[in-house]
Amino acid sequence: MPPLSLAHHYLPGVTVITVCGEVDATNRAQFESYLREARRDPSDAVVFDLARMPFLDSSGLHVLLMTATDCLRHGGTVHLAAAQRLPARLFQVTGVAAHIPVYDTVEDAVAAARPPFKRSL
Hints:
Belongs to the anti-sigma-factor antagonist family. This protein is α/β, with parallel strands linked by helices. It is built from four helices and five strands; from the N terminus they run E-E-H-E-H-E-H-E-H. It has a single domain (about 5-110), classed as Transcription Regulator spoIIAA. Helix content is about 35%, strand content about 25%.
């Protein structure tokens, strides 16, 4: 199994987190710790770029759900993007996809996650 690699970048109101590699019980703590540190503002939306995450087990899913719960508690949201076949199937069979939006592309997820533009008069 390739090692888990995580990266993030900030956009206005959105933190995009890129997950590369498999997420399972062996690296759950690393995943959870990284997410705590990467989220600059707890009210920001979080977009997970999952294009290079071929596998996610229940412990990784738990971390995603806890992140979503924390985001909601602070007024933010979580969006999942570009999920590969196995994680996408897990989101479907567990019902996660009914509660956390899943997008085909990161661009679509970021567009949905961005706060609405407010014009000054």
